[in-house]
Automatic annotation (TrEMBL):
InterPro entries: Cro/C1-type_HTH (IPR001387), Lambda_DNA-bd_dom_sf (IPR010982). This is DNA-binding protein. One of its GO terms (molecular function) is DNA binding. It holds the Pfam family HTH_3. Residues 20-73 form the HTH cro/C1-type domain. Keywords: DNA-binding. It comes from the Bacteria. Coiled coil: none annotated. It comes from Melittangium boletus DSM 14713.
Length: 130
């Protein structure tokens, strides 16, 4: 299932399933996870049952306790997630030449990128007949 097409309820339910599986893998009880995350056991139980979505700080703590990435908790595929702010999503549909250009330009100063854009716009403009 595409992660972008999930409703909030579906995402909550799937997150709960992932959390439950990870907790079982670690041999922990709901109460133990709740204590480590800093939640009341009833609240953690609601998360596992898909009844609520944790706040971002809680999600981070939950991922740490369950020894999962937040990407795994949210069922994001590797290709849906950038490695970091400085390494955006891969352009999988780009040709080899375009990918090489992206890699080259990625490290340039903004002024140099603006110069390249000017050159590209000149190349894109229709030729004037003399």
């Amino acid at each position: 299932m595409d992660s972008e097409s999930l409703s909030s309820e579906q995402l909550q339910r799937l997150l709960g399933e992932v959390a439950r599986s990870a907790r079982a893998r670690l041999g922990l009880t709901q109460a133990q996870v709740a204590l480590r995350v800093g939640l009341v056991p009833n609240v953690y139980g609601r998360i596992e049952r898909g009844g609520m979505m944790p706040a971002v700080p809680t999600l981070r703590r939950l991922a740490r306790v369950l020894e999962l990435s937040t990407d795994a908790l949210l069922l994001l595929r590797e290709e849906d997630v950038a490695a970091s702010v400085h390494h955006p999503l891969p352009e999988v549909e780009l040709s080899g030449d375009l990918r090489q250009l992206m890699v080259l330009v990625r490290g340039w100063r903004p002024a140099k990128v603006k110069q390249l854009l000017r050159v590209l716009r000149l190349l894109e403009a229709p030729l004037k007949e003399v």
